[in-house]
């Protein structure tokens, strides 16, 4: 039914990359030329002359990551081409019992955007892969990870077979309903993830300054700073995808829980109230007080987080302070996770071809 298939994926720790490779392999086994494209920060679409596209990505905050939303919005008109969407989500396993994640609005939001762009969406699925949110919990052990991944492969293969056979498959309606109820949290996450969570990362004393994290960040969100002893600095464009944390060879990327408390305290200061009180003496702003308050709150938080993180990144170079931060975060104790069969170099390419026995376009 299809001649070619282009799959666009975003992946932090390899789960969505692995899912996309399974889907491309299934297409290839049916004699369908297929290619994978990694969604980078500035990636433009490569979707030319194909009759099926897929978008595969992790769930963040019960919805799709901003990078994927932006990428989908920028796709050219679909003109009736077929499309499918897969959102990987946080599967876990407690005492041999597998527990599902919740993709919320992730899959259907991207499906809706694709429909608006003129694509005919043939399938949507949420797929349990091992949870990678290492700022919150330790990484799953290899046995549990492999258990979840093996189950996921069966589901991904079956989904893809259905789509390639020309049928439709729409999964996760209950998750969508819960996602809609939780949509205020998802909306808040788009800001909190970027401006709060991303500002908790720091490199512990184990960092050698190798720069691998900066080089491999799919968003280019890490800058190496500091002359002959370089250190990673996390900018506001970080999507909290966990790649740097999952793949640092020295397990040096930490997410500071103690600094989270400091940031929370700074964010709670009623600065906008004082500013507005003084402003009202000079400018009549009563009629749009709410608007001014929201705007000031936002600007204040942004600037204060930026300044606080700048101070942290200077202080973190002092070994004693670094130790203090390192030993007051749980991530120091957490096992790191990345998809067990996915090396960092596997995700380096922007484009992968599945129309020949060669796995990667560049060899
Ligand atoms: C910041 C962040 C937020 C997440 N939010 C959710 C969520 O709301 N629901 C869920 O089921 N999984 C959530 N996850 C888990 C990931 O979606 C899941 O582990 C995914 O498979 C990771 O894929 P990747 O390795 O391709 O990045 C979150 C992970 C991170 C890092
Ligand atoms: S945090 Fe890790 S990957 Fe990044 S520079 Fe330091 S050692 Fe290298
Ligand atoms: S800085 Fe780390 S967590 Fe943030 S987007 Fe880059 S690799 Fe992902």
Automatic annotation (TrEMBL):
The chain crosses the membrane at residues 106-125, 173-192, 259-277, 298-316. Gene3D superfamilies: 3.30.70.20, 3.40.50.360. Keywords: Iron, Iron-sulfur, Membrane, Metal-binding, Transmembrane, Transmembrane helix. Residues 198-227, 230-258 form the 4Fe-4S ferredoxin-type domain. InterPro entries: 4Fe4S_Fe-S-bd, 4Fe4S_Fe_S_CS, EFR1-like, Flavoprotein-like_sf. Pfam families: Fer4_10. This is 4Fe-4S ferredoxin-type domain-containing protein. The keyword Iron applies. GO terms for molecular function: iron-sulfur cluster binding; metal ion binding. It comes from Desulfosporosinus orientis (strain ATCC 19365 / DSM 765 / NCIMB 8382 / VKM B-1628 / Singapore I) (Desulfotomaculum orientis). SUPFAM superfamilies: 4Fe-4S ferredoxins, Flavoproteins.
């Amino acid at each position: 039914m299809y001649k070619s298939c282009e799959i666009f994926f975003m992946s932090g720790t390899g789960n969505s990359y692995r899912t996309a490779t399974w889907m491309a392999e299934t297409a290839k086994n049916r004699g369908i030329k297929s290619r994978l494209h990694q969604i980078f920060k500035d990636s433009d679409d490569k979707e030319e002359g194909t009759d099926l596209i897929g978008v595969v990505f992790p769930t963040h905050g019960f919805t799709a990551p901003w990078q994927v939303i932006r990428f989908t919005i920028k796709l050219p008109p679909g003109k009736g081409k077929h499309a499918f969407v897969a959102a990987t989500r946080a599967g876990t396993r407690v005492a041999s019992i597998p527990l599902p994640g919740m993709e919320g609005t992730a899959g259907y939001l991207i499906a809706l955007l694709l429909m608006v762009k003129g694509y005919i969406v043939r399938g949507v699925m949420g797929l349990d892969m091992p949870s990678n949110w290492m700022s919150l919990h330790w990484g799953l052990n290899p046995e549990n990870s492999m258990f979840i991944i093996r189950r996921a492969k069966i589901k991904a293969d079956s989904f893809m077979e259905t789509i390639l056979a020309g049928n439709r498959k729409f999964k996760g309606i209950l998750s969508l309903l819960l996602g809609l109820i939780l949509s205020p949290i998802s909306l808040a996450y788009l800001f909190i993830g970027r401006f709060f969570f991303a500002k908790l990362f720091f490199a512990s004393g184990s960092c050698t300054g190798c720069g691998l994290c900066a080089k491999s960040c799919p968003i280019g969100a890490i800058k190496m700073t500091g002359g002959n002893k370089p250190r990673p600095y996390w900018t506001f464009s970080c999507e909290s995808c966990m790649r740097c944390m999952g793949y640092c060879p020295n397990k040096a990327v930490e997410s500071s829980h103690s600094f989270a408390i400091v940031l929370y305290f700074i964010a709670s200061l009623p600065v906008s109230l004082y500013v507005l009180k003084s402003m009202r003496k000079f400018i009549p702003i009563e009629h749009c007080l709410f608007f001014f308050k929201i705007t000031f709150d936002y600007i204040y938080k942004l600037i204060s987080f930026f300044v606080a993180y700048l101070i942290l990144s200077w202080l973190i170079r002092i070994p004693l302070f670094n130790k203090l931060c390192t030993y007051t975060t749980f991530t120091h104790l957490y096992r790191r996770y990345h998809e067990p069969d996915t090396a960092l170099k596997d995700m380096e390419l922007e484009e992968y071809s599945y129309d020949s026995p060669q796995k990667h376009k560049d060899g």
